Amino acid sequence: MRYKDVMQVMNSGVGGNLQILKEFLTTLTDIDETDAKAELTCLSWAVQLSTPRNWGCEMVSYLIYKGADVNPKKKVTFHNLLCCAANTGCIENAKALVDAGVVIECRSYSRSAPSLPANGPPLFEAVAHPEMIQYLIEVGCNPHFITPENNKTLLMHAAERGYKDSVRVLLNAGVNPELKDDSGNTALDYAAVSNSNFSAEPYFNDPGIVELIEAELQIRELIRQERELAFAMAGHHRLGRDSGMASFDEGLFDIINQHGRFS
Question: What is the CA radius of gyration of the chain?
């Protein structure tokens, strides 16, 4: 099918005119046919053009209803479909794809931006969208994924870009802020760089990320100390919590309440 025809149909669908899409599909012998230029199916285009603020989600649902393959056999030039939905932040599309059986831990076939790792899974594509990150974790995506190229975690990527709410979601999911990449940098190091660039790039950076990660590190340290104390107490055949344990508990909950780790 011709690239120009597909773009005209898809842009009409994004504008809310689904009838043009329905008529166009009657001209296709295969709903999963790719266009001659970008080598994308109609469903691939619909997912890419969708946002939470246009009619693209209706196009996606309709194409899936008509039998479009959510796991194309041929590698598309932009993304696996779930990766693309994650990148746009359109949760409705992600849900439609998951309900239709899309492969959850798929990888993108090419980079959507230079900062993204090659072959990154959906969560890396969703880094700017905390609600999407939460949804993808709930349906089985692994928040602990580490890039094979440089041992970079999703938490590092979110901290570097300055997405505070995404950092919070990942910390609540248990992602370890103490891990290091191949250069020895932790998520806190990336957050510090983001913090230093805050005035120059206010759209991408939030200076509160450093404090958020530091609070998580304090919580982890207090938990370690409490466990060590518990083991020591067990070694002396003592039961219950003494005043030392209570002081650790008080410090732990003060940090949690202050930074809303579980909110």
Answer: 23
Q: What is the pLDDT of residues 166-196, one digit of tens each?
A: 999 999 999 999 999 999 999 999 998 876 5
Sign of CA dihedral 258, 260, 262, 263: positive
**Which residue, among 13, 6, 14, has the nearest Cα to 41 in the 3D structure?**
6
- The confidence score (pLDDT) of residue 262 equals 46
Residue at 54: amino acid letter? N
Residue ranges of domains in the chain, CATH in brackets = 1-142 (1.25.40.20), 150-263 (1.25.40)
> Half-sphere exposure (CA, 13 Å, Cβ side) for 229?
16
Give whole-number Cα distances, 253 to 123, 170, 239, 248, 263, in Å: 30, 19, 22, 9, 13
Question: Burial level of 83, CB count in 10 A (0-12/13-18/19+)?
Answer: buried
Q: Give the residue carrying structure tokens 């001659």.
A: 36
Q: Please say whether the beta carbons of 124 and 110 come within 8 A.
A: no
Q: Which helix (DSSP H) or strand (DSSP E) does residue 48 occupy?
A: helix 42-49
Would you place residue 28 in the very low, low, confident or very high pLDDT band (cuts 50, 70, 90)?
A: confident
| Rounded (5°) CA angle 221-218-214 | 135
Taken in order 58, 59, 62, 67, the sign of the CA dihedral is negative
